[in-house]
């Protein structure tokens, strides 16, 4: 996947930070979701005013949401707050 606000590295970094797990110990992101498809969907939405989809998927035991502005929200089971990162 190309670098950008929804790059694979941004998603993996956000999950690693939130779970306090080294990035190289997390499973490959492509096993959970097609990251190129996320980027394509959000890029398409950015070209259309008023379209603002978010994409939510499970990864490494967390629920990850990627917003059109590049914000990656990570929810960890059993914790009350999600952490937002805006790349």
UniProtKB/TrEMBL annotation:
Superkingdom, natural source: Archaea
Ranges annotated as biased composition (Polar residues): 1-10
One Pfam assignment: HalOD1
UniProt region (Disordered), positions on chain: 1-26
Halobacterial output domain boundaries: 8-75
Record protein name field: HalOD1 output domain-containing protein
């Amino acid at each position: 996947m190309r670098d950008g606000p929804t790059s694979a590295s941004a998603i993996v970094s956000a999950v690693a930070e939130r779970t306090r797990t080294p990035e190289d110990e997390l499973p490959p992101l492509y096993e959970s979701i097609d990251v190129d498809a996320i980027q394509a969907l959000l890029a398409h939405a950015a070209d259309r005013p008023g379209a603002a989809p978010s994409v939510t998927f499970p990864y490494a035991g967390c629920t990850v949401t990627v917003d059109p502005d590049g914000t990656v929200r990570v929810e960890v089971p059993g914790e009350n707050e999600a952490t937002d990162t805006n790349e």
